[in-house]
Specification:
The protein has 25 helices and 12 strands. The chain is α+β, with helices and mostly antiparallel strands.
């Protein structure tokens, strides 16, 4: 038997041992757990938080159907400090936990532990249990019978699998919402180097020979980040197109991104698109239902002005209602996927509850909202705005659920809305809904007062128009010249014209970085610097995002503009107001950026 054949046979035998799918039985789990001294909350205050992080990363990971991952924290001095078992156990030692959080902010420690968890989940997902095999083949007896060449070959195979697990761990941790770049560089510190130093200083462990050096692990992940940033451009372009209402194009970008990175944010945004398309058709077939209450979600609220998207459809009730159901069910499915990717991601739960309410699934909406409330009680860092949004939607779900069984729950709904305002007084939706409920209960003085309070926080959009109509507020007709206020686009947007020499020269003048790729046969070009973002599709400029040069605040500007076509709320506190061919990004009453776009 020649040497090459023996080496190949050796690797094949190892592969059969390493990758054999095994499902552990309950008694095997108990036996496995009994081998270790379990680290509990009494022993270490970080135990509950690490269990939460584990759930988040598991939700984002590619879980093998052969086993269900479970977390075991141990006080024992184990080698290595973190590893996984065929039962699905991810074992993390107290020493690993302490090193992750040593002299860093909690967010950095969370990112570090999430990457370690993601790394082991990658081994589980690939049925890769090289640790046990590595130890078996590194025993003294094995070393006596194995040639140096075969040992080196095995070691190289194991190191490659470790690097691949790092990549997947980075991917899973990123999808779960952790900033994994903090692992590679936090105030000049590299976690892989720290971990390697601590493990070698503690006891030079046998398993270290099968781990790649820290520098190689770091460089591999930096390369991964570079590729991730390129793909992130696809996601950002989808967000831009979503913001200005170009939903068909946005779906192409977001679906392309989803194929590579099926995380919570992309599913949430896809859900929002289908939610908005559903609202379009609901306004056509059941306008009273669409506009009766204001659901507190981070979604678009549009006026009755003509759609920027130009959605074509029948004006008869039946087709519109059918299309509404198609889109609202698609929205629900995407929000559920977003929630599944991160069980603690509240925006997905809030948006899901809105879609369920629109679809008349009130009991399911109440379940989702009550789960969301439980999360706010468990976590100490939930913004009051999110809790207020949950209370707002709870009010509408309770009230409408009561109507189905002929029970008046308006007083309970009013109580929830009052709680929402107490939590976050600047949230507009509860004031609007209190005004509507006051009208239903014939408390008309309260109706006017609540509408006035609502307009103090939200004077644009469709709901504002309804409130103004109820208060008999009228506006004089004016001639509007928005270009006099916001100025022209720095890069020309020429209708149905390809980029020409003038456009190319402008791009050179602004020293914009060029990136190019293809999606579904369409050539995508982006041109970027710190002040400007230009998106071109098939050599046609689609939108230009740039800084707003004027020093005027939005209150001074808005009186010179028509009502926006759409209003988009974001978690970051930025409001996007979309007009006929431009959009304004508003933060704290200041216009921070302008998006020029083609209709």
């Amino acid at each position: 038997m020649n040497s090459l054949f023996k080496q190949c046979l050796f690797v094949l035998i190892v592969s059969l041992i390493v990758f054999q799918p095994i499902c552990a039985k309950p008694n095997e789990l108990l036996n496995e757990q009994s081998k270790y001294h379990v680290l509990t909350e009494t022993d270490h205050f970080r135990v509950p938080e690490i269990h939460k992080i584990f759930k988040q990363v598991v939700a984002a990971a590619d879980i093998s159907s052969n086993r269900v991952p479970w977390l075991m924290l141990t006080k024992d001095d184990v080698d290595p400090w973190v590893f996984c078992l065929k039962s699905g156990a991810v074992v993390i030692s107290q020493k690993a936990i302490d090193v992750c959080y040593q002299n860093v902010d909690n967010s950095v420690g969370d990112a570090r532990i999430s990457l370690l968890i993601g790394h082991e989940l990658a081994h589980l997902a690939k049925d890769d249990f090289w640790e046990q095999s590595a130890f078996a083949f590194s025993s003294p007896k094995q070393k006596e019978t194995s040639s140096n060449a075969m040992s080196d070959l095995f070691e190289n195979v194991m190191k490659k699998k470790e690097l691949k697990a790092d990549e997947y761990g980075f991917f899973y941790s990123s999808l779960a919402g952790f900033d994994v770049q903090l692992v590679l560089d936090y105030q000049g510190e590299n976690f892989f180097q720290q971990l390697e130093t601590h493990m070698n200083h503690d006891v030079p462990v046998e398993s270290n020979c099968y781990h790649p050096p820290a520098d190689l692990r770091t460089q591999t992940l930096y390369n991964k980040i570079i590729h991730f940033q390129k793909d992130l451009d696809i996601f950002n372009n989808g967000i831009y197109l979503y913001q200005v209402g170009k939903y068909s194009a946005a779906l192409n970008f977001l679906n392309a991104f989803k194929e590579k990175y099926p995380g919570r944010a992309v599913f949430n945004t896809l859900g929002l698109i289908h939610y908005e398309l559903a609202m379009d058709y609901l306004r056509k077939c059941k306008p009273q239902k669409a506009e009766q209450f204001m659901l507190a979600t981070i979604v678009d609220t549009r006026t009755r002005a003509e759609n920027l998207r130009g959605v074509q459809g029948s004006r008869t009730k039946k087709p519109d209602e059918h299309i509404f159901k198609i889109h609202i069910e698609a929205a629900i499915d995407h929000f559920k996927m977003s929630k599944k990717k991160d069980p603690f991601y509240l925006p997905a739960r809030i948006n899901l509850s809105s879609a369920l309410i629109l679809a008349d699934y009130y009991n399911e909406a109440l379940t989702v909202l009550n789960e969301a409330l439980s999360i706010t009680k468990e976590k100490n860092d939930v913004p009051p705005l999110l809790t207020a949004q949950i209370k707002n939607n709870l009010a509408i779900a309770r009230y409408r659920d009561g109507l189905k069984i002929d029970v008046d729950l308006s007083s309970l709904a009013i109580d929830y809305l009052s709680q929402a305002i107490e939590l976050y007084p600047k949230i507009p939706a509860p004031y609007y809904n209190l005004a509507v409920l006051s009208g239903i209960t014939e408390q008309y003085n309260d109706t006017n007062e609540y509408f006035q309070q609502f307009l103090a926080f939200d004077a644009t959009g469709n709901y504002a128009a309804i409130a103004e109509n109820a208060l008999d507020i009228t506006h004089t007709n004016k001639q509007y010249y928005p270009l006099d206020i916001i100025g022209p686009s720095p890069i020309p947007l020429k209708q149905y014209q390809y980029m020409d020499a003038e456009t190319d020269q402008k791009i050179l003048t602004y020293k914009l970085e060029h990136k190019s790729y293809i999606i579904d046969g369409h050539v995508i070009d982006t041109y970027i610097n710190d002040d400007m973002y230009v998106l071109c599709i098939n050599r046609v400029v689609q939108l230009v995002d740039c800084l707003f040069e004027s020093q005027k605040n939005f209150s001074e500007i808005k009186v010179q503009l028509q009502s926006p076509v759409r209003v988009l709320e974001t978690l970051a506190g930025i409001k996007v107001l979309v007009y006929e061919n431009f959009a304004l990004k508003i933060f704290n009453n200041q216009v921070v950026r302008v998006i020029h776009f083609r209709l």
